[in-house]
Amino acid sequence: MIRFYFHPTPNPAKIALFLEEAGMPYEAIPVDTSKGEQHAPSFRAINPNGKVPAIVDTDGPGGREMRVFDSTAILLYLAEKTGTLLGVPEDRPELLSWLLFIASGLGPFSGQAVHFQFAAPEGLEYAVNRYRREAERHYQVLNDHLEGRTYIVGETYTIADISAWGWLDRASRVRKGAEDPLAPFPNLKRLFETVDARPAVSRARAVGKDHPFKRTTDEDTKRALFPSNFPPAA
């Protein structure tokens, strides 16, 4: 059994989609990051970095209970465990390259673009421009790569496409104010729509819909989400 710790944000969404695609049995355990539940010692024992997603595999290698954190590590772990969505062995270096491109570039720059456009104080135009333009540059790299391709790696749908989908789903926030945020990147838009049309996506989106996550952004929420912005308590 997989215990899946999540909040309805892009990186956990990737894991929800994989679990639904693979048909793996799992227990979804909400972690309300706006309330600071990710900082609880019980959760830090699973992910010392205090972020979602994280999983605990109660039937890991050798029957051991196994913790895995960071969305890319989880995708690789689950794909290898199930033998699904990895593409062909010859494409393994390419798969790893694009997974890490998303993990170290597309994802973080998208997240920072959202942060500085929606959560940061006004007057930080340099940061807004820097992160949004870098997110768009990563969009363009992937868009160019997808010319003449249906999927990111090889000829089949893989965890690379799932990983990209998680953040492309938030393109309207990354490119705030754009009427059709993926329109300048037609190959990327096609990839997103291809993945988004899969039946497992609707099931993944439904995960946690019945949980009353905190929706207000007050001072406590900011301290929970961005603790390094605040001095430590005396």
TrEMBL record:
GST N-terminal domain span: 1-86
CDD domains, alphabetized: GST_N_Ure2p_like
Matches recorded under Pfam families: GST_C (PF00043), GST_N_2 (PF13409)
Biased composition (Basic and acidic residues): 207-223
Residue span(s) of domain GST C-terminal: 88-216
Region (Disordered): 206-234
Keywords associated with the record: Transferase
Gene Ontology MF term list: transferase activity
Official protein name in the record: Glutathione S-transferase
Species of provenance: Oceanibaculum pacificum
